[in-house]
Write a structure and sequence with these properties.
Layout: H1 2-26, H2 29-56
Helix pairs in contact: 1-2
Length: 57
């Protein structure tokens, strides 16, 4: 399950980065903000998984 969560984190980060980039390219501030939010959500999920790994080992 941890690998699944790590994969979700990476996917959220990538999707957020793409949204942010597209938002900037077309001048859509809402899309840019959504992208940043998704990246942040992915970063948080990744940090949580890393913390769990530290305590697991």
């Amino acid at each position: 399950m941890a690998g699944d969560q790590k994969g979700k984190a990476k996917a959220e980060q990538a999707k957020g980065k793409a949204k942010e980039t597209i938002g900037r390219a077309v001048g859509n501030e809402r899309l840019t903000a959504e992208g940043r939010a998704e990246q942040s959500k992915g970063d948080t999920r990744q940090a949580k998984e890393k913390t769990k790994d530290v305590f697991k080992h």
